Amino acid sequence: MNLTELLTTATTSTATLTNNDGNTATLTTTTAARLWTAVTDDRTTMHLHGLPETGKLHVTLESMDDDVPVMAVAQTLRYMLDPDGPVIRLCTATGCPNESTGTSILTRVCHDHLDVIIPGTLPNAGDDILPGDRENAARESRQRRLDAWQAEIEASERHSAGDRRVLAKLRDGDL
Description:
Strand content: 15-25%
Number of domains: 2
């Protein structure tokens, strides 16, 4: 089922998804809309423009975690949809139950998967890989992810600082 079908079904009644283990999740309109919004935001933030548009992305029930569905979108993006809480973005490593450390370009991992090698950091041909290349690639991948996370934190701090300046000027009557 794609996201458009999921939202349409949830709007007219309730959307029900079943996984290969026989687990079933029922999504309300609100939950389906929250999933749509999270996927749209992540598609933009992670620069996943090679994927089809949001409504055409395939949605599957990956598992149930304490009666809370874990959804996989486009077999890449993973979300825990707590009906009473926020949408939790999970690590994109298949089956990983951990919440992600943040979203950056093309990746979203948890603290356990920071060392997973980013595609393209190793030579293309297997016979070109020298001793130590994998360790260097893992170290470089971890550094890139940490740098991206730091850049996200700094960007949100700049945004907050700008909001504080505007608020202070409004309180002072300068604007």
